């Protein structure tokens, strides 16, 4: 399965349009937002790979989007930008 996902990811990266290079499309953002709000704010590498394949983005682009979206969410919740241990 992982081999298939790797091949699929390479094929997606080869066919990415200039539209994707400037940022995700509305449809891609909808997929990313759904996964952020309903599935997981901190996806593991396997989940991230599946989300990237579903959205038609590279894993790197998807990871970057989740990192930026998490920072935005933390600001909106009044939380510090980085999560630390309770004992810090």
From TrEMBL:
One of its GO terms (biological process) is trophectodermal cell differentiation. It comes from the Eukaryota. SUPFAM superfamilies: Homeodomain-like. Residues 25-76 form the Homeobox domain. Pfam families: Homeodomain (PF00046). Keywords: Developmental protein, DNA-binding, Homeobox, Nucleus, Repressor, Transcription, Transcription regulation. The keyword Cell division does not apply. One of its GO terms (molecular function) is DNA binding. InterPro entries: HD, Homeodomain-like_sf, HOPX. Gene3D superfamilies: Homeodomain-like. GO terms for cellular component: nucleus. PROSITE patterns: HOMEOBOX_2. Residues 27-77 bind DNA. Its main location: nucleus. It is found in: Nucleus. Interacts with serum response factor (SRF). Component of a large complex containing histone deacetylases such as HDAC2. Interacts with the acetylated forms of HSPA1A and HSPA1B. Interacts with HSPA8. This is Homeodomain-only protein.
């Amino acid at each position: 399965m992982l081999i298939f996902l790797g091949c699929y990811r390479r094929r997606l990266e080869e066919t990415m349009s200039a539209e994707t290079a400037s940022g995700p499309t509305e449809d891609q953002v909808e997929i990313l937002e759904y996964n952020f709000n309903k599935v997981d704010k901190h996806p593991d590498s396997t989940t991230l790979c599946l989300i990237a394949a579903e959205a038609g983005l590279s894993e790197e682009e998807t990871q970057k989007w989740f990192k930026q979206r998490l920072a935005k969410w933390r600001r909106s919740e009044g939380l510090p930008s980085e999560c630390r241990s309770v004992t810090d």
